[in-house]
Amino acid sequence: MNTAEALSLLPEVVAVVAEASGIVRAANRLPKDVRKKGRIDLVTRTDLASEALLKKRLAALLPQASFLAEESVSSLEPGPLCWIIDPLDGTTNFAHGVPFVAISVALWQAGRVVLGVVDLPLLAETFTAVRGAGAFCNNEPIHVSEAARLEESLVATGFPYAIERHVDEILAHLRQMLTRTQGVRRPGAAALDLAYVATGRYDGFYELALKPWDTAAGVLLIEEAGGRVSEFDAQKPYTFGSGCILATNGKIHEEMSGVLGGRKREG
């Protein structure tokens, strides 16, 4: 799929995502039906309804594409042509009435994301990107920030569900970031965080143990908005198998990587 073909497909994908967002908005006014997948990993009826709709509608757009979706995942490896879906990122927020939730849809082809949509159903913003065609919020072009130093930056992070396994590393990183930046935010939805880096609200974002559906669309947004994405080590490219992600405006990437323990670029 070339850029022109992806651009032609994008409005149809946005319309499908908008339909799923309607499910989220309607359910937000009702009592939440919450189940636990883990000690603090929740799923609601809304997650399942959103995913079912997205898979049905997207399958009609590209019948040949497979799916990698959070609530029905069987493998973390996307197929050659694959929709990567998070039907409701920020489920814990949703369950508690906090509006920081997102729907993330990305189209993966031949080893890379070629189209991405991150929709914020309760905040009325839709972020879109097609590889090679820029990034947008509500159809207006967006770009990463111009912050050149960490001390003038606002950054975001998140905490994995397996918090006990990572808590010492998380606290060590948080201590460094709190003392070296203008502030650290933790909304609780990685797709939203990545979109906010793409539009310049955050200068950087980092997190451990994310899954492909958390990051696929957001990474494309950032790259198309002029930013940079890697592992904590800036010399290592981010992949779906990475245990960590660092996403920035590019200008603070090396400095932020150094604070997180990554190698500094030589020379």
Task: Write a structural description.
With 267 residues, this protein is of the alpha+beta class. It folds into 2 domains: 3-141, Fructose-1,6-Bisphosphatase, subunit A, domain 1 (Fructose-1,6-Bisphosphatase, Chain A, domain 1, 2-Layer Sandwich); 150-259, D-Maltodextrin-Binding Protein, domain 2 (3-Layer(aba) Sandwich). Helices cover 36% and strands 25% of the residues. It has helices at residues 3-28, 45-61, 91-95, 163-180, 190-198, 212-224, 253-259; strands spanning 34-36, 42-44, 66-69, 81-89, 102-109, 112-120, 125-130, 135-137, 140-141, 154-157, 183-185, 204-208, 228-230, 244-248. The strands form 3 sheets. The protein has a 7-stranded mixed β-sheet, with helices on both faces. A 5-stranded mixed β-sheet has the order 11-10-12-14-13, sandwiched between helices. Strands 1-2 form a two-stranded antiparallel sheet. The chain is globular and about 50 Å long. The termini are far apart. Residues 263-267 have low confidence and may be disordered.
